[in-house]
User: Which sequence fits this backbone?
């Protein structure tokens, strides 16, 4: 079973260019988790014969949003962070209410949960660090609550490079958005709670990135950041065959990331 995650940075654009269709044809994921769809289902001309589609779009048009396309029918669908968890944290600020931005979508299968997440950006002036310090523990509480029922896979654009291995220029970017102590600590809490960064588990070396700036040919020069992840419950790790990054897939400033699971895992 192949599970992919991709921040498409506008699904209508990546469909129009044909990049999404060619990606599906070549990689044939069983489940594809999307972030930053920037669209409602009614705005997208896509007919994926082999997939069921689940969407959680932002109330604001053309902004944020997540979706999951799956070849396997889920038992249940959870949109967003459950209200009983969200109300414990301050998830709104001057920029908006993150609970209304379609940032989380979770499907339940027989043997596990799959959740896609688009974590709020801290902003260049770090003005959203306070909301990150609320968002990260709120999402973690949601994931750990699910893990009490069955194993969890969560993936997406977490908008943080965890260690110096996860960006090309750590010294120049230390303390800047995506590489602050607050954001890195938020990611570390996921690992402390019993989740595993799958790519780092298989690849202990740096030089592998998932996002590149549009400036100065950063992608061609591989001057990037690894801010897109697939994390799994420790209980699932023995069933993870591999974890990969796919920089050859074009169409977005992010590239897809994936894991492959043993076929013995129930869906």
Assistant:
């Amino acid at each position: 079973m192949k599970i992919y995650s991709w921040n498409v940075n506008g699904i209508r654009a990546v469909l129009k260019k044909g990049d999404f269709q060619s990606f599906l044809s070549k990689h044939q994921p069983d489940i594809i988790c999307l972030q930053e769809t920037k669209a409602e289902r009614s705005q997208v001309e896509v007919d994926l014969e082999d997939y069921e589609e689940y969407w959680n779009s932002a109330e604001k048009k053309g902004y944020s949003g997540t979706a999951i396309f799956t070849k396997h029918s889920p038992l249940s669908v959870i949109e967003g962070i459950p209200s009983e968890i969200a109300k414990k944290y301050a998830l709104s600020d001057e920029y908006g209410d993150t609970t209304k931005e379609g940032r989380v979508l979770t499907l339940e299968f027989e043997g596990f949960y799959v959740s896609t997440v688009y974590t709020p950006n801290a902003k260049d002036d770090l003005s959203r660090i306070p909301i990150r310090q609320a968002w990260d523990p709120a999402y973690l509480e949601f994931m750990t609550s699910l893990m009490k029922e069955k194993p969890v896979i969560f993936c997406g654009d977490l908008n943080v490079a965890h260690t110096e291995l996860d960006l090309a220029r750590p010294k120049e970017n230390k303390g800047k958005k995506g590489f602050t102590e607050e954001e890195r600590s938020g990611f570390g809490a996921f690992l402390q709670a019993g989740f595993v960064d799958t790519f780092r588990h298989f690849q202990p070396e740096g030089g592998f990135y998932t996002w590149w700036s549009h400036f100065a040919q950063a992608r061609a020069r591989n001057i990037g950041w690894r801010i897109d992840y697939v994390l799994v419950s420790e209980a699932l790790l023995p069933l993870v065959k591999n974890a990969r990054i796919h920089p050859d897939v074009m169409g977005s400033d992010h590239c897809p990331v994936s894991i492959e699971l043993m076929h013995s895992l129930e869906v």
Summary: The chain has a mean pLDDT of 96.
